[in-house]
Amino acid sequence: MSGNMNINLKVWRQKNGKSQGKLVDYKVENVSPDMSFLEMFDVLNDRLINEGKDEPIAFDHDCREGICGSCSMYINGRPHGPNQGVTTCQLHMRSFKDNDTIVVEPWRSAAFPVIKDLATNRSAFDRIIASGGFISINTGNAQDANSLPIPKGDADDSFAAAACIGCGACVAACKNSSAMLFVSAKVSQLALLPQGAPERATRVINMVAQMDAEGFGSCTNTGACEAECPKQISLTNIARLNREYYKATLFSNEG
Amino acid sequence: MNWITKMFSSSLGQKLIMAITGLFLITFLIVHCTLNSLIFLNDGGVTFNAGAQFMATNPLIRIVEVVLFIGLILHVVKALLITLNNNKSRPVKYAAYDGKANSKWYSRSMGILGSLLLIFLVIHLSHFWIGTKAAQLNGTILSHNTYLELKEVFESPINVLIYLLGVISLGYHLMHGFQSAFQTLGINHKKYTPFIKSFGNVFSILISFIFAMMPIAMHFDIIK
Ligand code: HEM
Ligand code: SF4
Ligand code: FES
Q1: For B176-200, what is the mean pLDDT?
Q2: Does the global pTM surpass 0.90?
Q3: Is this complex's ipTM strictly greater than 0.90?
Q4: Which listed site, A36, A192, B99, B189, has its alpha carbon 20 to 30 Å from B93?
């Protein structure tokens, strides 16, 4: 078809967590500009399976509509590729040109070890959530809407923070592999609402301790995370996390 | 005391120390720059030397000097520990890395800019601080002519170059550091942050410019 492209891929191939990996060249021909980046990998994997010489490339994906956060690909030096506010599954080949060379790597962080090829183990995020990113009480039936007054601004900020899909692009983008944007979103989302208040201090202390224990680096406020986050989580959340943490350690009975 | 040590050994607590000491060092820079600007009065260093004498003999300033050194050492040691730890957090580097797409180069180079600053500070202290200290100790401080020392040091074009490099490192370090310190302290608000950011940039450029003019003006005998 006219308008279709040829793409030169350099893809990170690694058998398992223990083996050495390397970049391998693949030429993908006749790529439709309307394909998503993952569909291009489907086409390539189909070919690899049919040829039977090489194993298909392992990569994470689930919803393919930008809400699950599993499609982690570091594309030409940027997490989720060149566009702002989108995940890899929502990146389309029309964002590239015919004969482009595209380097695709897994997230790189001591806390996100490679499982295979482009798939990394991001259970460090799960352990951070398990350390405090929840509310312990049952919320029960839906209450009368006005029984729990919440200022509109707080509700908006909480909702915006809750948009975090836990993809890990913030860690991948950060030169220190810091998880501050993720943790700050999870802390903010609950700290802004009355339901989150009873566990506010323990939550932030435990989540920060778990974040440090997982081997993420510290935040030097470069802002790379905010620029690359597919859900455009704001740096104001990181300032709130700092505040919440100092307040909890200095003025609460916790810690 | 357990909660205190826990707080200051956490990644956030360590950054808190960086931010507080960083802002403290900035207040020192303001005083330092203001006093040194007395050379621009072009009165043969009379007012400048009087200022220097005051700073060198005032007992309160002696105490502040000690606090300043402690602040600087804390800042540098924490910087070193944080930077080393951060470098460990990504053992396998990216083959393709497009940093400029999402952040300013100087925000990613604070460790290098800081190290250049540290080297500069050692040279700078050996030029002026050691002489003044010796004069303080052997009682000749009242006849110590710092202005003359300045003239001698800045006769050398190499020294002028070193100072310019030091001051440029300072400017970029502060362009990121000034606003970064507020974010670390948890101060980020739509009413204030735009002002903090632009003020930080203007301040960093201005203070570097004024400092840079000192060796230049002396070297080219613009001030006598
Ligand atoms: C006059 C001297 C200095 C001043 C006024 C100064 C100021 C600052 C400020 C305000 C910050 C921001 C703190 C924050 O982000 O929370 C900072 C960060 C930093 N400084 Fe300095 N500093 C000075 C000297 C040094 C030296 C000598 C070194 C290194 C040996 C250094 C290394 C660093 C590093 C690595 C950071 C962390 C980078 C970041 O958080 O983005 N600084 N400095
Ligand atoms: S903050 Fe953004 S980049 Fe980080 S995990 Fe959440 S959605 Fe992904
Ligand atoms: S596959 Fe779910 S966000 Fe991309």
Answers
A1: 97
A2: yes
A3: yes
A4: A36
